[in-house]
Design goal:
Elements: H1 20-30, H2 33-37, H3 78-152
Region (Disordered): 1-81
Biased composition (Low complexity): 48-57
């Protein structure tokens, strides 16, 4: 019998792993030429505990001054530049995932609105049919009342 695939929990890798995003990033890194030349993976600092559901990573507004002025960046920091490039690529990937989720949710919202609009139209048509039937019953009732009064009138006349 084959052994079931191991399920990695989000706390094993040091940072939360939102399944498809991490798989996609790993596949992209495996196919880039820089991945073959890159030294061993840098150790990740453990992040603060996040809720179990995936949420976008927030980046502080003034993360570093060297990002604003690349001329001040020393030449001896290629590893840091590579790490920043990886962070940027991860942020871009997260952004793409969020945009895709937003598009899916927008489509679902539009479909729900269309379904609700159709249901409301159907209910209005049904109510209109019921009101028409009620009006026809009222007309028929008035007709029968008039006939009954016409037939009963000779009975109550004085002779």
């Amino acid at each position: 019998m084959s052994e079931p695939a191991r399920q990695y929990s989000s706390h094993e890798s040091g940072r939360p792993a939102p399944g498809p995003l991490r798989d996609w990033l790993a596949a992209m890194k495996a196919h880039t030429p820089a991945a073959a030349e890159k030294p061993a993976a840098r150790p990740e600092a453990p992040r603060a505990a996040e809720p179990p559901s995936w949420a976008p990573r927030l980046v502080p507004p003034n993360a570093s001054q060297t990002e604003r002025n690349p001329a001040e960046r020393p030449l001896a920091e290629p590893a840091r530049a590579l790490a920043e490039a990886e962070d940027v690529s991860e942020l871009m990937a997260e952004n793409l995932m969020l945009k895709a989720k937003l598009r899916v949710e927008t489509d679902r919202y539009a479909q729900l609105q269309a379904m609700l609009a159709q249901e409301i139209r159907d209910l209005r048509a049904h109510v209109q049919e019921e009101m028409s039937a009620l009006d026809s019953v009222r007309e028929e009732r008035d007709l029968w009342r008039a006939r009954a009064e016409a037939l009963a009138q000779p009975l109550f006349q004085k002779r």
